[in-house]
């Protein structure tokens, strides 16, 4: 069992016992690698002899396993092996933001060499806890507009990383456009939002601008936790479709969200293909596995002495449209040929 698997098992056991409570995930430094695999001695020699790096991982809710595996694989290819020259310190909540600042401060007190901040909420919390410990973010919208970096080209501080998109408003608007293309009869669409999240407002504004251009009425449905989905969606009246702002809350509870959405029998578009893989109708966004894989070189360069201020933020160049064929059939939808040719992946 990998260290990451142990992390998830402890997380969900604790959540089952303490429903609704925030969960502290803290692992001892000597846990086994969460992705095992041999690495040659030549790779290990890339790192200073005897040096053991301690990396903090901070997120609002546990990430999908494949994301962390991609990060670990990228580091392993660069000579970092847990148990030999790498120790991880994991901290995450159950999807809320409340304890992120506390967890970030804990990582700083542990004297980690670097913090990997997953998504904007974790990056903001990490920046609030330290101006000296290097921070690499993965999966952040608009890092310049929310104050993480001075500019994408010249970050200027102790933080840099890989953006998930540089225009959150445009991405949310694009998702609404795609939903109306698949279902041209849409008149009123509900957007589930997560108000405390740093990019929630700009994503909602983007959806609003697109709705006005498309002649669609947008209805905001705020949610603050994973227990809110069923009640929020059951209360909807006169709604023709669904979308959501892209925050870790929804990704953490994606299976519950998709199940609740399915009970409404409304067409829905999600931000990431991970939602489609658990039954969601369709998604439009970046391949986040690739985002985490591309975060590994940043970690490597910084541990070898590079300064985050000198490493430009990497931006995505490819976005995926993914559809779940079974869900399409269950909803009785017909995919127009002009729409189908733009689909990058069909989940059976």
Features:
348 residues; alpha/beta; 5-stranded parallel sheet; 39% helix; elongated
Brief write-up:
The chain is of the alpha/beta class and 348 residues long. It contains 14 helices and twelve strands.
How would you characterize this protein structure?
The structure is a single chain. The model is unreliable at 12-45 (pLDDT under 50). This protein has helices at residues 3-17, 41-44, 65-76, 100-109, 119-129, 168-182, 200-214, 229-234, 248-252, 254-264, 273-276, 288-303, 325-330, 337-340; strands spanning 53-59, 86-92, 114-118, 135-141, 159-165, 188-193, 217-222, 241-244, 269-270, 282-285, 320-324, 345-347. The chain has 348 residues and is α/β, with parallel strands linked by helices.
> How would you classify the helix and strand content by structural class?
alpha/beta
Strand order of the largest sheet: 2-1-3-4-5
The rough form would be described as elongated
- Roughly what percent helix? 25-40%
Set out the fold topology:
Elements: H1 3-17, H2 41-44, E1 53-59, H3 65-76, E2 86-92, H4 100-109, E3 114-118, H5 119-129, E4 135-141, E5 159-165, H6 168-182, E6 188-193, H7 200-214, E7 217-222, H8 229-234, E8 241-244, H9 248-252, H10 254-264, E9 269-270, H11 273-276, E10 282-285, H12 288-303, E11 320-324, H13 325-330, H14 337-340, E12 345-347
Parallel strand pairs: 1-2, 1-3, 3-4, 4-5, 6-7, 6-8, 9-10, 11-12
Antiparallel strand pairs: 10-11
């Amino acid at each position: 069992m990998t260290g990451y698997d142990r992390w998830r098992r402890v997380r969900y056991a604790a959540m089952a016992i303490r429903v609704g409570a925030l969960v502290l995930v803290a692992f001892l430094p000597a846990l086994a690698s969460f992705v095992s695999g041999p690495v040659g001695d030549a790779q290990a020699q890339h790192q200073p002899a005897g040096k053991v790096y301690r990396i903090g991982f901070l997120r609002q809710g546990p990430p999908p396993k494949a994301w962390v595996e991609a990060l670990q694989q990228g580091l392993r290819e660069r000579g970092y092996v847990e148990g030999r020259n790498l120790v991880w310190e994991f901290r995450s909540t159950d999807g809320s933001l409340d304890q992120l600042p506390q967890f970030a401060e804990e990582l700083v007190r542990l004297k980690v060499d670097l913090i990997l901040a997953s998504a904007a909420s974790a990056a903001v919390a990490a920046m609030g806890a330290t101006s000296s410990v290097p921070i690499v973010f993965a999966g952040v919208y608009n890092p310049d507009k929310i104050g993480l970096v001075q500019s994408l080209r010249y970050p200027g501080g102790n933080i840099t990383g890989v953006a998930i998109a540089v225009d959150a408003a445009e991405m949310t608007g694009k998702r609404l456009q795609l939903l109306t293309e698949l279902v041209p009869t849409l008149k009123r669409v509900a957007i589930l939002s997560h108000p405390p999240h740093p990019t929630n407002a700009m994503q909602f504004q983007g959806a609003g601008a697109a709705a006005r251009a498309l002649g669609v009425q947008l209805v905001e449905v705020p949610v603050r936790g994973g227990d809110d989905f069923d009640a929020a969606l059951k209360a909807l009246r006169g709604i023709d479709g669904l979308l959501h702002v892209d925050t870790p809350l929804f990704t953490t509870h994606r299976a519950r969200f998709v199940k609740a959405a399915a009970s409404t029998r409304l067409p829905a578009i999600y931000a990431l293909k991970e939602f489609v893989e658990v039954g969601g109708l369709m998604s439009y966004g970046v391949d986040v596995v690739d985002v985490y894989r591309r975060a590994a070189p940043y970690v490597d360069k910084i541990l070898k002495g590079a300064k985050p201020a000198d490493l430009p933020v990497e931006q995505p160049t490819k976005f995926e449209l993914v559809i779940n064929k079974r869900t399409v059939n269950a909803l009785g939808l017909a995919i127009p040929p002009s729409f189908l040719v733009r689909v990058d992946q069909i989940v059976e």
